[in-house]
Design goal:
With 470 residues, the chain is mostly helical. The chain folds into two domains: 90-112 and 262-322, no CATH class; 115-259 and 345-470, no CATH class. The protein has helices spanning 7-15, 20-38, 40-43, 47-64, 92-109, 113-124, 129-146, 149-166, 173-187, 196-205, 209-234, 243-253, 265-284, 291-294, 296-308, 316-321, 324-342, 345-357, 363-379, 382-395, 404-415, 425-436, 443-469; strands at 73-75, 79-81. A two-stranded antiparallel ribbon has the order 1-2.
């Protein structure tokens, strides 16, 4: 194979000569990887290591079978660039968004801004359990939208434990934490950067930040109201009845001080202003000159760097706090998916997907894809699912950027996390907090309690997608 052959041409020649047996072998490898990820907790192994091992295996076998486009890449001007074959396989735009926004949020949280908001809402509730559930529920959704699901659950969940303990309502802790855990995945639907599946599918479908928000917001509003209302009924969370109880509640919340977590007023306001600018910048990236060419990852990384100036002499502490397991997991996952594409495994899955959704776009196919995505993401990581489906849909004929099938993947991948405690990282954090407070909740107990909520969410999503987006 010539060293001056472009990657695209080499990839095309490679995929045309793949035998059916080779495709089946790599399909089995992909299935094994997904099963192994589902057993992550039992194996006591990080997902980055699991997928990394499969990436090594896939690259080695693909090289032996001459599936990969080795050689130099030709760029405009006739220049040649030589790099390892797995480097261009990684979607560095997605990596940049996760890395940049992660650093930005981590530094911003040090300003005490998010704790301040949480304590303010606690005092605003006047100690009333039902008001507190509504305030914390809405806060969970908003935090999940502008931060990330896990961070939102940690902040709100931790404050919930402290607040209910001080308010002598520890018996309601299970209901609060479970509802908040479910709402993290609802809030994760609100913006393009709220969850990783959103970023993956949004990039593949070229959905802008504003368009994503306007499309998802009506569903998120309805699902949030329904979840809190249902949670209050199921767990018996009611308003304070007597004047004596109301006065006692006011006295108890008066002991909270929203200024406790603020290191300095100057940094607090700097963090608040930068958060506002960050949201505006991300929302307008696709229409702003220069920025639209550099992309959303540049914006996220830029804001991360700017926020680090506040801790310029100790930035290394934030480098240590970066979720390197997630970054490495993504890099390895992109490599595996790229190899699967060359081995025509994605074509095989695409053929199976056609049986489910049909060649074109139909109401039955759209609803079936959403339900199947939700069930699949409830038992394994929703990131590989979103990555594979986004890749398949991006090359499927007749699928435009406005297709409702993209939204079936987005809603299904996010909402599936509400069926089981391993369906998303944020529900796992919720269960961890529940156990921390000595409340017994088994895997089966979670499924039994959360299933009515999850079914409601999925049914609402199917109705919404079919009625308004199809």
């Amino acid at each position: 194979m010539s060293h001056t052959t472009a990657i695209a041409g080499a990839a095309e020649s490679a995929t045309h000569n793949v035998s059916q047996g080779t495709t089946i072998v790599f399909t089995l490898i992909l299935v094994c990887m997904i099963v192994t990820l589902a057993l992550e907790e039992k194996l006591h192994a990080k997902k980055s290591l699991i997928v990394g091992l499969y990436a090594v295996l896939c690259l080695f076998l693909a090289a032996c079978l001459d599936l990969l486009p080795f050689g130099k890449i030709v760029i405009p001007g006739g220049h040649l660039i030589e790099m390892p074959v797995f480097i261009p396989a990684i979607d560095w735009g997605v990596i940049g968004i996760i890395l940049g926004s992660g650093v930005f949020i981590d530094v911003t949280s040090k300003s005490g801004l998010f704790t301040y908001i949480a304590v303010k809402l606690t005092k605003l509730s006047k100690g009333d359990p039902l008001k507190l559930l509504w305030y914390y529920g809405v806060m969970t959704v908003v935090f999940s939208a502008v931060l990330n699901n896990v961070t939102a659950m940690i902040i709100v969940g931790s404050l919930t434990g402290v607040s209910l303990n001080k308010l002598n309502n520890k018996d309601k802790l299970l209901g609060f934490l479970l509802v908040e855990g479910l709402l993290t995945n609802i809030g994760g639907l609100l913006t393009l950067i709220s969850s990783v599946p959103n970023i993956i599918v949004g990039n593949a479908a070229n959905i802008s930040f504003v368009n994503f928000f306007l499309t998802a917001a009506p569903f998120v509003f309805v699902a949030t109201v329904a979840t809190i209302f249902m949670g209050a009924k199921i767990f018996g969370i009611k308003r304070l009845a007597t004047d004596e109880d109301k006065q006692k509640g006011i006295e108890l919340v008066a002991g909270f001080d929203e200024n406790d977590g603020i290191p300095s007023k100057r940094f607090f306001w700097f963090g608040a202003i930068m958060l506002g600018l960050f949201i505006v910048a991300i929302a307008t990236t696709s229409v702003m000159p220069v920025f639209k060419d550099l992309g959303m990852s540049f914006v996220a990384l830029s804001f991360g760097v700017i926020m680090l100036i506040r801790f310029r002499s100790e930035v290394d502490q934030f480098y240590k706090a970066i979720d390197w397991d997630l970054i490495a997991f993504f890099g390895a996952l992109f490599v595996v998916i790229n190899v699967m594409e060359h081995a025509q495994v994605l074509n095989l899955i695409g053929d199976g997907l056609n049986l489910l959704i049909g060649e074109g776009e139909s109401l039955f196919g759209t609803g079936s894809l959403l339900a199947a995505s939700a069930v699949s993401s409830s038992v394994t990581d929703n990131i590989p699912l979103a990555t594979m489906l986004a890749k398949i849909l991006s090359v499927k004929e007749g699928i435009t950027e406005t297709s409702s099938l993209w939204w079936s993947v987005v809603f299904g991948a996010n909402l599936g996390g509400n069926i089981t405690p391993i369906g998303s990282a944020s529900t796992l954090v919720a269960v961890t907090l529940i156990h921390k407070y000595k409340i017994h909740l088994s895997f089966g107990g979670f499924v039994k309690t959360a299933l009515p909520f999850a079914l409601l969410h999925i049914v609402l999503a199917i109705v919404y997608v079919l009625a308004f987006l199809a």
